[in-house]
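Lab notebook page, bench 4
Experiment: in silico fold of construct C2
Operator: M.H.
Input chain length: 293 residues
Purpose: comparison with the prior construct
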Amino acid sequence: MTSTPSTRPRRSALYMPGANARALDKARTLDADCLLLDLEDAVAPEAKAEARDLVCAALREGGYGASETIVRINALDTPWGVEDLVALHNLADAQSPNAVLAPKVSTPEEVAALQKAIPEACDLWIMIETPQAIFNLEALAACAQTTRLTTFVMGTNDLAKEMRASLVPGRAPMLTSLTLSLLAARQFGLTILDGVYNHISDAEGFEAECQQGADMGFDGKTLIHPSQLELCHAAFGPSDLEVEQARNIVAAFADPANAGKGVLKIDGKMTELLHRNIAARTLEIAQAIASRS
């Protein structure tokens, strides 16, 4: 089975620490496609309960506009994961996040357990951040056929730790895992988001990694600071030139003079029907991005 992922813009997914009330409030002013309200890694054990209360209060208040809200819960086998889900179940459907993001998911059985545990109003996103998950990628992605699983999120920091690998420029140690995850996501129509870039002040390195992720085929990237939004959107959104070229391709194949033709010369390039389909998706994404503002 091969299907097409959603054209809803998910260029950026910004982690917001759940224990920081000011950050949760500031998130309402940010142009992030997705806001990851984090109860897991960004929250110390002694602050877990407070963070849970703050995130639920923020969701009740709302005001996040066009940004999708996703709550990253603690794993169900921790002392906090079940309580995270109880708190989300206590929200009204209109206050529920768009999705629940579960960390360190490695098996289809875990996906099935999460499907039963998360609120019905929520989609399921899972972190790909363990060696076992990499070896189970096809089976994990196939869960999209029977559950509300819609999205893979690469946990490159945890995966590098498990591999004892270094996160070096170009990410050579990670490329196999990233590529296999992409292939599995595409096979079953999942959205897939690249991992974070840790050096906030290194704009040049961040831009290069965004472009690498976009070139590989990722739908977007997870971020750790609002200052990363602009460069991320530039890399993962179609440029004006790409939109113009896409319009030319779609228009050329729609021209009655080209009816029945499978290959055309457009803007000096040999262009096939598959390129028309890619162009049509580019225009859908561009329109969805424009509609956000």
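Observations: The chain has a mean pLDDT of 95. DSSP finds twelve helices and ten strands in the chain.
Next step: discuss at group meeting.
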